[in-house]
Amino acid sequence: MKPSLPKGTRDFSPEQIIKRNYIFDTIKSIYKLYGYQPIETPAMENLETLNGKYGDEGDKLIFKILNSGLKNDDLQNPPLGGWGAFTEKALRYDLTVPFARYVVQNLNDITFPFKRYQIQPVWRADRPQKGRYREFYQCDADVIGSNSLVNEIELVQIIDEVFDKLRLSVTVKLNNRKILSGIANFIGYSDKMIDITVAIDKLDKMPIEKVCDELLQRGIDAAAIEKLKPFMLFKGSNVETLNFLKQQLASETTAINGIEEI
Dmax over Cα atoms in the chain, in whole Å? Predict the structure, then answer.
């Protein structure tokens, strides 16, 4: 019998690695042009660092690390005596939370504002569909220690220049968390912003009826979903969209601030 790989993993040939490195080198060259510095963080983080950062769905996909020496039965019936099936460690789910941990641990050695980039693999304990993998690379750039919108403009320029250099035509879509927060407050569920955004993020993958069903399952009542529907159904140009949001969210100060920033 031929040896095989676990589902959701893959090998890379020399030709594929050369192509991937070309893409990474292109991205790095643009990051450096804008003054971003490289950092690396370990593949493993403490589980408590990752838990609770990604919402219910994301937390379920954290790749927890098993205790060594376990038998198959131990997964269903963890042994007693203070140790369970999993250790207190996990593989990193993304690069943002490890970066936040890095900043807190190195506050005395960092000059702010701090612009960093990071290109490393991350892991998801997922049942991947075609074209998706449990291990994949993220290319991350962040600025910490500054509230200037110039940073946001720079990040959009970085994206534009990277794809221009790679000769790929893309559309960059902008969002603002303050607008999302204002919408959540407008429908009466300011404490459920993550649940709302996770659901409505699926509008390009499933019909609005299924998105509404998911919102119900996430604890959003029918009356609030009806208030949310105009936002989900609206289609228009950038200017028309901003005008629509201004009219609908006129009483939401946080949302208006986000609209002005956009």
Answer: 67
End-to-end CA distance of the chain: 58
In the predicted model, what is the mean pLDDT of residues 2-31?
Answer: 94
DSSP string, 158-176: HHHHHHHHTT---------
What pLDDT does 80 receive? 45
Yes or no: say if 146 and 218 are a contact pair by the CB < 8 Å rule.
no
Q: What Å distances lie between residue 130 and 7, 204, 208, 254, CA to CA?
A: 10, 18, 24, 40
**For residues 50-72, average pLDDT:** 80
- Long-range contact list for 127-135, CB < 8 A, 24+ apart? 127/7, 127/8, 128/7, 128/8, 132/8, 133/8, 133/9, 133/10, 134/6, 134/8, 134/9, 134/63, 135/8, 135/9
pLDDT of residue 56: 78
Q: Which two tokens stand for residue 153?
A: 């403009």
Distance from the Cα of residue 1 to its chain's centroid: 39
Residue among 50, 220, 23, 32 nearest 124 (CA)? 50
- Model-level pTM? 0.81
Range among 50-64, 121-135, 154-168 with highest mean pLDDT value: 154-168
Residue among 39, 27, 42 nearest 116 (CA) = 39
Q: Which residues pair with 89 in a beta bridge?
A: 46
Does 83 have pLDDT greater than 80?
no
Looking at the predicted structure, is the pLDDT value of residue 86 above 80?
no
Amino acid (one-letter) located at 53: K
With beta carbons less than 8 A apart as the criterion, state whether 51 and 62 touch.
yes
Question: Strand pairing partners for 140?
Answer: 118
